[in-house]
């Protein structure tokens, strides 16, 4: 049996909230939210299997976008796990686009708590727009979810704006995810009294299922040959119209389904540590270097929280790490910092300063575009 799939414009988050409610309850069509800056999903079918309530198009931050099919049970399990991990039900400040899973999760958690979210006005986040949105919140228990770039921007604003600093200190929890969040950024936020939790997950897991390294709800984590695999009731059913990719990403073991991420990681005393992507290894001078390891060290340096490390060409060494950032750091200082933690071959060959880093609509760095800029 099938049900209709409605492609819904995400420019009105509260209208999306209503559409999601009907999709999850089964008295409306399944939904795919489409952002104004995202090309329409021309190949999306007009119908999906009856068990599918939500289709999410991935950002394609490192490859071809995929369309992830999720059931109502998965979406509600994700909301229940998050609300359970956070504690008391509260009101959400919606600061993320709802055509990506992190924004959709804010809607789902709001539905589960029966408390409408408060959207931040579209456009670049600043103290004025955030404070205006917070001023419309009616509940004492408050939450929000951000990507690291948003957190960094708000920290910079709060350094000079006591009202913003105090307003966000009143939130019960600020979730930060979507990409690696530098420890230095978290430390700065906590110095303001902000309660920050780093999350890990993806569209395929209906959003973050690991909070500060530990799985939430009924989610589970395992490491298979160095690869992070995630299991539990929030796992997606399949990729729409892509059985080959589905078979590669979703596996069954001992009657449990697992999503095979592209991340490398390790479990230490039950705490997950993501060490980088499995596909970000380059060979420089015959030696392997994982760009994620280099980027993690670089982003811990003062003023470099936005840095992205990509592969560049070198006539002698082949591939080399290249730092791309909006700052103007001293190359020798960056090389010393990396060399103090990683082998000599991991030291960046050069720094490229840009006016603005290319980003995807989700706010994540567009690594493919950045890598193109780093090539001669």
Automatic annotation (TrEMBL):
Keyword Amino-acid biosynthesis: no
Any Pfam family: AMP-binding_C
Segments forming domain AMP-dependent synthetase/ligase: 47-213
AMP-binding enzyme C-terminal domain location: 294-364
Top enzyme category: ligase
Keyword Hydrolase: no
Keywords of this entry: Ligase
Name of this chain's protein: O-succinylbenzoic acid--CoA ligase
Organism: Microcella alkalica
